[in-house]
Design a protein that fits this description.
This protein has about 675 residues and is of the alpha+beta class. Helices cover about 20% and strands about 35% of the residues.
């Protein structure tokens, strides 16, 4: 048995047996490589990564499987590997084991309750205590409360399982008595919560029973050159070797990482052609055939349109796209349109504000500032969420709604069961703008309003998006004009008076200031592109700033007036100017102009890119396309969108969906 690693959780030191753990890791890698569902994670969940020794993510840390479910909702399965745990209160290792599971229950119960997190206990065959625990977990999973579970256990469980339940209660009591954290629920409730999302995983990889290995080999057949059992067996052996390497590094393994590490192996033929790369949480838009439906009174040409333009009001907002449906606020109406055909699905009177779309649902702000959901395709109304929200401070991300409450504070709601995941409040002020989600982090700008805050001062707070736990907060920052979150830093543009601004870069790891940069009044929030951050000021100058040090690499005057953010790609930055009417592309590594285009109208909307093509619209009403490298131009369509502060038109799978000139249009761009 290996000795304990200083600073590591006792369970993270290979208590389940390193060889057994690596073999189980290889089985999980076979699921990851072939995108096959992982037992315990969910049949409707596609595995995305496997983490070895993930103590920083979970107390149950031998193996951590992450996956993506419907609407892009993240799912996690935390697995502990033990060969034959005794699961008695007198056994110290069993108390430590259950204590690790209870840590997860204590910290992430809302996620466990909603089904986003699950726990797994992997054991060797013939472990009677674990199988008795598994029988109890099956009963708990079908019981909505602790009371129902106890009644079912008393009537349905055999005498051995009931005795095991008494032992488990004693273990939980011992863990709570240890005082690692204060339990806010009774021991009996904690026992049920532990069992509610626990799956028993029997590892059949040793001795006479190798059925798990056999299943993994069969699963790997399509990934071999000749689809032979011999090749699939060799491929599994290689995965077992890699699992040992990954475990020693505590690596988080993705599908692309496995493919790279298997490259050149004689038994690996790459991904099966029948399994295309997933499209993430963004739903694909099918290309529809043109219909003969006319649009009465249409005054724009439709030869380039995917479907005949649909008449909307002049004040219609730009559409929001979700799961093949466009949602438009058209004056007093909410309208939903099928993105593939242009057919209207439904329309209903709206109450106020822009709707939020996601997870197959449209959320509108109804009376009393409540969020009222509608089914995305049918428009059928559902009961309102019992929370008052602030208009303009609601965002959706991967099946979760994050919103600022009318009385202050922030909440996270699981869209599917419509249950609160967590809530958070800052006593020093109120949330002044929509939160920003970046991966597993949530960033909130809090404007001071209490006696403890400076008048007009704000600070940025980073939260764990899954549990709402505060990770860090910045110092007070006065007079914030713009802010944005990049890959490594958050950029805050502060008004310094006398037509001057200063940009502060905050480290996303801890919120400390990395650097400051002074400019004239900033026209837009900074735009980050890898190692470079681009700043534009109202005097028409563009600055390329080192993202790490904040030093100016170069600066250039691009026009007399800039009123839109530049587009930053991996190699170029494209700057739109209002005066003169010009679009300019710079190779920011070579520090030279690539091409320019002067238009008949001002460019006052941020350009966007699809592949290697840059698109930009000017006020004269044309959408133009340019080759990113050469600037070679072609006119796509006569189109102009409104200048309201709403998000720009969406581009999905090469199609631009835009409300222009009183029509909703679908314009293929590639």
């Amino acid at each position: 048995m290996m000795g304990k690693i200083p600073g590591a959780h006792p369970y993270a030191t290979g208590g389940g047996g390193t060889r057994l753990e690596h073999q189980q890791g290889a089985v999980l890698l076979s699921h990851l490589l072939t995108r096959a569902p992982v037992p315990g994670l969910g049949d409707g969940v596609s595995p995305e990564s496997v983490r070895f020794q993930a103590l920083s993510d979970s107390s149950v840390d031998d193996l951590l499987v992450r996956g993506v479910g419907v609407h892009g909702t993240p799912h996690v399965l935390a697995i502990g590997v033990r060969r034959r745990p005794k699961l008695t209160a007198a056994d110290e290792s069993s108390v430590r084991l259950i204590g690790a599971y209870l840590d997860v229950v204590h910290e992430r119960w809302p996620l466990l309750r909603s089904g986003r997190w699950a726990l797994g206990l992997a054991v060797a065959p013939g472990c009677v205590p674990a199988h008795e625990l598994g029988a109890l977990a099956t009963i708990a999973a079908s019981s909505g409360t602790e009371g129902v579970f106890r009644a079912k256990a008393a009537s349905d469980a055999d005498s051995k399982a009931r005795r095991r339940l008494a032992q488990l209660d004693a273990i939980v009591e011992a863990v709570v008595a240890g005082g690692k954290w204060t339990a806010d629920v009774l021991v009996r409730e904690l026992t049920w919560r532990l069992l509610y999302r626990l799956s028993l995983l029997t590892i059949r990889l040793e001795g006479a029973d190798l059925s798990d290995r056999t299943s993994a080999v069969e699963r790997l057949l399509p990934s071999t050159p000749n689809r032979s059992n011999h090749e699939a067996d060799a491929l599994f052996s290689r995965l077992a070797e890699l699992a040992g390497t990954y475990a020693s590094r505590g690596a988080e393994v993705t599908r692309s990482m496995i493919r790279a590490d298997l490259y050149g192996h004689a038994a690996f033929a790459g991904e099966p052609s029948a399994l295309p790369e997933p499209n993430g949480s963004r739903a694909a838009t099918p290309v529809a055939k043109r219909t003969s439906r006319g649009t009465k009174g249409r005054s724009v040409r439709d030869s380039a349109d995917l479907w005949p333009p649909l008449k909307v009001g002049e004040g219609a907002t730009q559409p929001q796209f979700s799961e093949g449906v466009l949602v438009v606020r058209d004056r007093s109406l909410l309208r939903a349109v099928d993105a593939a055909t242009g057919e209207e699905l439904w329309k209903h009177p709206r109450t106020s504000g822009l709707p939020v779309v996601g997870a197959g649902t449209v959320y509108e702000i109804a009376a009393m500032r409540q969020l009222r959901p509608r089914d995305l395709r049918s428009g059928q109304r559902r009961g309102p969420l019992p929370f008052r929200v602030r208009e303009g401070a609601v965002v959706h991300d991967r099946g979760t709604l994050y919103f600022a409450g009318e009385a202050g504070g922030l909440m996270a709601i699981d869209c599917r069961p419509r249950e609160r995941l967590w809530s958070w409040r800052d006593s020093t002020g109120t949330i002044g703008s929509p939160p920003v989600v970046r991966g597993e982090n949530l960033y909130v700008l809090v404007t001071g309003s209490s006696a403890s805050s400076q008048p007009g001062a704000s600070h940025l707070v980073a939260l764990d998006a899954t549990v709402g736990k505060e990770r860090w907060r910045s110092v007070d920052l006065p007079s914030i004009r713009h802010w944005t979150v990049g890959q490594t830093s958050a950029y805050m543009v502060l008004s310094a008076g006398n037509s001057c601004d200063r940009t502060v870069a905050l480290n996303l790891d801890d919120g400390t200031a990395r650097w400051e940069h002074a400019t004239a009044q900033a026209a837009m929030a900074p735009q980050e592109a890898g190692p470079v951050v681009f700043l534009v000021d109202r005097e028409g100058r563009l600055f390329a700033v080192d993202a790490t040090k904040g030093t100016t690499r170069w600066g250039i005057e691009v026009g007399a007036r800039i009123s839109a953010a530049p587009l930053a790609t991996s190699r170029t930055v494209v700057v739109p100017t209002r005066d003169p009417h010009r679009l300019t592309s710079y190779d920011y590594r070579a520090e030279e102009v690539l091409w320019t285009h002067r238009g008949p109208g001002a460019f006052d909307k941020q350009p966007f890119a699809v592949g290697e093509t840059v698109f930009a619209a000017h006020r004269a009403g044309q959408l133009l396309a340019f080759d990113e490298s050469t600037g070679k131009r072609r006119t796509v369509a006569d189109v102009l969108w409104s200048h309201d502060p709403a998000p720009p038109p969406p581009v999905v799978d090469g199609v631009l969906y835009v409300a222009s000139g009183g029509f909703l249009r679908a314009l293929p761009l590639v």
